[in-house]
Amino acid sequence: MLTLLNKNEIKMKMKRIFFTSIFMMGCLVLKAQQRPNIILILSDDHAYQTIGAYGSTLMPTPGIDRIAKEGVLFKKAYVTNSICGPSRAVILTGKYSHKNGFRDNENSRFNGAQNSFIKELTRAGYLTAWIGKWHLETMPQGFSYWQIFPGQGSYYNPDFIMMDSSRKRFEGYSANVVEDEAEAWLNKRDTTKPFCLVIGQKNTHRTWFPDTCDLGRFDDKTFPLPANFYDNYNNRKAAAVQDMTIAKTMILDYDLKMYEGEIKIGTITRMNPAQRAKFDAYYQSIYKDFKKQNLTGKALTEWKYQRYMKDYLATAASLDRNIERTLNYLDKHGLAQNTIVIYMSDQGFYMGEHGWFDKRFMYEESFRTPMVMRYPGHIAPGSIDSNMVMNVDVGPTLLQAAGVPIPNDMQGQSFLSQVLNKKYKGRKALYYHYYENGEHLVSPHFGISTGRYKLIRFYKRVNSWELYDLQADPHEMNNVYGQKKYQRIQKKLRKQLKKVIEKYEDKEALKIVYENIH
Ligand code: CA
After folding, report:
1. 115 with 408: CB under 8 angstroms?
2. Chain-centre distance of CA 331, in angstroms?
3. How many angstroms does the Cα of residue 296 sit away from the middle of ligand 1?
4. Peptide bond before 204: cis, by omega within 30 degrees of 0?
5. How do residues 348-363 score in pLDDT, each as one tens digit?
6. Residue 24 Cα to ligand 1 middle (Å)
7. Chain segment 6-34, per-residue pLDDT in tens
8. Distance from the CA of 104 to the center of ligand 1, in angstroms?
């Protein structure tokens, strides 16, 4: 009898344990489901001036536009240092370049031992992955998975460095391959855990190679020159000494594929025969026509501008199609509702404004970056956010959305409440610091923007101050520093600049900002 009772008791206990475990597992799964998944699509050198959601009529961008339509468009998203590697380091760490140590693309190597928003998510139970362009010199740390391009990566048949340090070549166009690999990782992931995936695209970085199916996509268009295409850089010392003009700096063969003789450029020699045949067929006829025209002076510069636009926009079309693919994947797998999607570039780009291509300057076209975000059920579709946000804020925002505490030493501030339409005290000013002092001869500089006014201090290559009234002069053609009319605002901005430098503990800038120059 006793034995029987014990057996029954044991049975009851077992049942209780069984149901309790099922209940707990259910809770865990529910918790995992409630925490949002995150996809951050990070492109390279993509200009907001070319995106439909930003009002551009240059080309259709249905992928990016869909995120904006179903979520929020950031009209005033900026970067702290407008160049590739440094911007990625800022996003990862939530800290300015002087704090995370990755100041420029020339001498910096990312210290992966430091904390990042990814590491915080991994510790909190997220699956974390970075697939595609990384460009931080050292190997990623703190991710569940990574698969990255060596350096800048290749537009065609890209190599990847895999987690075991092996190199693997993938056949195809880079943006398609990155999306394929991202989807392959999503397919095989542990679905009981939330994920954070960064899709790092090479597009639209120089030298603008589209997928073969996009070659010639915009050949029937003639693009209007920006109003300040023939800028004479009057009153702006740093702008006068740069080397990033379409007229002088853009190279006919390297950039615009007008090759004489045997082609030795890696991007082209690594194409497979089918890709190469399409490439040759397209550019050879353009080359023949170009030679016939024998252009010089302004006619040559404007021809270069048209070719630049056509190659760049075609490369952007190849990118946008893959953004649509990401969204379609989420739809197909029932993930759209509980996944935050952010699309952004590492910084903006010049599309002929001031006569330029490239980035680096604190002027609006490269200081700003496109950014759209979708969070179904949380962000109202079609929202437009006109508050100032920065790339340094992305990590803290995603941590807050995931319910993970934001480390005290992260310098960015979450904009989650702002986009959820809650009471939010946004930024009053933006602080910027660019360090590189080599390629394209852009002088190092730092500065502050309040949205209405912008004060910049150039140093090292040129020593000068610049002040812009963005309301009166949105294209930054008229440096009013030292003008009597702006004396009061100039004084106020210099004080405000010192204050933000102190706030972010930028010791190098602090030393320079007190120097008196004329
Ligand atoms: Ca870039």
Report:
1. no
2. 24
3. 31
4. yes
5. 999 999 999 999 999 9
6. 46
7. 555 555 555 555 555 544 554 444 444 48
8. 11
Kindly report the backbone phi and psi dihedral angles of residue 447, in degrees, each rounded to the nearest multiple of 5, phi listed first. Answer: -175, 180
* 102-141 per-position pLDDT tens digit: 999 999 999 999 999 999 999 999 999 999 999 999 999 9
What is the distance in A from the centroid of ligand 1 to the CA of 258? Answer: 24
**At which residue do the structure tokens 């995603």 appear?**
398
Residue 453 alpha carbon to ligand 1 centre in Å: 25
Domain boundaries, the chain: 34-210+305-513
Distance 88 CA to ligand 1 centre (A): 9
DSSP 385: E
Q: How far is residue 154's CA from residue 134's CA, in Å, rounded to a whole number?
A: 13
The CATH architecture assigned to 34-210+305-513 reads 3-Layer(aba) Sandwich (3.40)
* Secondary structure (3-state) at 139: coil
Measured in whole angstroms, the distance separating CA 306 from the mean position of its chain's CA atoms is 25
> Nearest-CA neighbor of 75 among 334, 448, 418?
418
CA of 87 to the centre of ligand 1 (A): 8
Distance 444 CA to ligand 1 centre (A): 17
Torsion of CA 11, 13, 14, 18, to 10 degrees: 140
